[in-house]
């Protein structure tokens, strides 16, 4: 198997989820640091349109969305597991809710006026304006990122209160679903990481002592791993000189009239609804994937989770 290449930027909370999982599993990887805002020409050469962060590359296979990346990492590095079989459905459902609704509430808490003052890379007015315009484009045609701070803040505190009661109950366990962390822990951790990393709003977490103790356990978990930086050009060359892995099955009963022999578009159903176009090669209850050819990257297969994504016939 080719080396793992993570396309990300340091401030990305979803990238921190994957970084934490890699530390926990002791996975070495290579890293391409991508821009926070568009344009991202080298990333889009690989994804064909998908612009969210992070993206994981293995040779000519491009994996989009942290949910799919986390599951892939558990498949190729199964120990220690983050989707333990006896609670896999519970952990997956909790992680999905956390990565969607609770994520939205967290972002509004983190980017409240008091919080924005503590984000150093937004201190430049031009950078702040460019970021606001970029995120407006990211959420275009979507109401998924439309919570106000006044609406989000009570929801954020409510969930912290629930976590506080659960973590402090007897018999207590060190992690959300037992004695070892699962994907539910990593999804919750990366949301609170965004708040904890900003010293001007970190005190939002102070009343929740059990949650803070859990956060410290999550922050300290993991191994010393090797992370090697490479350029976007190097990553594209790796894709161009690699062969994609054999794709999964196409389950025609899941396509509902879509012709898999012609091009399709795949994109998120919530936000960042920029489609990736290509020929469908995988359609199951877990994954969608298509094959596409880029002028620079060559032939690549772009993979998406089924949960949270839609597929349509390309016009």
Structure, described:
The chain is an alpha/beta fold. It contains 10 helices and 10 strands. The protein has helices spanning 13-25, 41-47, 66-76, 88-110, 113-116, 125-138, 149-167, 183-196, 209-220, 232-240, and strands at residues 4-8, 29-33, 55-58, 61-64, 227-229, 263-268, 276-283, 287-294, 298-305, 309-313. It has a 10-stranded mixed β-sheet with strand order 5-2-1-3-4-9-8-7-6-10, with helices on both faces. Helix 1 packs parallel to helix 3, helix 1 (13-25) packs across helix 8 (183-196) and helix 4 (88-110) runs parallel beside helix 8 (183-196).
Q: Which overall shape is indicated by the principal axes computed on the Cα atoms?
A: globular
The fraction of residues assigned to DSSP E strands is: 15-25%
**CATH topology heading of the largest domain:** Glutaredoxin
CATH class assignment of the largest domain: Alpha Beta
| Major β-sheet strand ordering | 5-2-1-3-4-9-8-7-6-10
Low-confidence stretches: none
Number of domains: 2
Mean pLDDT: 94
Strand and helix map with partners:
Blueprint: E1 4-8, H1 13-25, E2 29-33, H2 41-47, E3 55-58, E4 61-64, H3 66-76, H4 88-110, H5 113-116, H6 125-138, H7 149-167, H8 183-196, H9 209-220, E5 227-229, H10 232-240, E6 263-268, E7 276-283, E8 287-294, E9 298-305, E10 309-313
Parallel strand pairs: 1-2, 2-5, 4-9
Antiparallel strand pairs: 1-3, 3-4, 6-7, 6-10, 7-8, 8-9
Helix pairs in contact: 1-3, 1-8, 2-10, 4-7, 4-8, 7-9
């Amino acid at each position: 198997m080719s080396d793992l290449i993570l396309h990300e930027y340091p401030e990305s909370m979803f990238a921190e989820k994957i970084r934490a999982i890699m530390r926990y599993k002791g996975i070495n990887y290579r890293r391409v640091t991508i821009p926070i805002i568009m344009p991202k020409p080298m990333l889009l050469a690989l994804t064909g349109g998908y612009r969210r962060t992070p993206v994981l590359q293995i040779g000519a296979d491009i994996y989009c969305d942290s949910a799919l990346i986390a599951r892939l990492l558990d498949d190729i590095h199964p120990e220690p597991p983050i989707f333990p079989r006896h609670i896999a459905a519970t952990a997956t459902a909790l992680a999905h809710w956390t990565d969607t609704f609770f994520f939205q509430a967290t972002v509004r808490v983190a980017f409240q006026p008091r919080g924005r003052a503590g984000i150093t890379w937004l201190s430049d007015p031009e950078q702040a304006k460019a970021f606001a315009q970029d995120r407006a484009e990211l959420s275009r045609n979507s109401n998924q990122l439309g919570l106000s701070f006044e609406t989000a803040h009570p929801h954020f505190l409510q969930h912290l209160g629930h976590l506080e009661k659960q973590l402090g109950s007897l018999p207590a366990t060190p992690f959300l679903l037992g004695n070892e962390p699962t994907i539910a822990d990593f999804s919750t951790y990366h949301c609170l990481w965004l708040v904890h990393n900003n010293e001007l709003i970190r005190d939002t977490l102070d009343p929740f002592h059990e949650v803070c103790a859990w956060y410290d356990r999550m922050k300290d978990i993991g191994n010393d791993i090797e992370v090697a930086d490479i350029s976007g050009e190097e990553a594209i060359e790796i894709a161009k000189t690699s062969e994609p892995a054999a794709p999964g099955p196409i389950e025609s009963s899941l396509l509902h009239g879509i012709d898999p022999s012609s091009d399709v578009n795949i994109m998120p159903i919530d936000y960042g609804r920029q489609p990736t176009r290509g020929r469908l090669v995988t359609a199951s209850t877990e994954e969608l994937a298509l094959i596409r050819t880029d002028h620079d990257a060559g032939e690549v297969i772009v993979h998406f989770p089924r949960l949270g994504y839609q597929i349509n016939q390309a016009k």
